[in-house]
Amino acid sequence: MHCSWLIFIVSLPTHNSAGRMRVWRAIKALGCGVVRDGVYLLPYRPEFRQTLQLQAEDVIAGGGSAHILALDSENPEQQAIFEHFFDRSADYMKLVDNIRQISYLNLQAEDSAKLQKQVHRLRKEFEAIVLQDFFPGAAQEQAAVALEDLEHAINEHFSADEPHAVQHRIKRLQPKDYHNRIWATRQRPWVDRLASAWLIRRFIDPEARFIWLTAPDDCPAEALGFDFDGAAFTHVGAKVTFEVLLESFGLTKDAALNHLGALVHYLDAGGIPVLEAVGLETLINGMRQRWANDDELLAEAEKIFDAFYQAFLGND
Question: Are 257 and 249 in contact, with CB atoms under 8 Å apart?
Answer without folding.
Answer: no
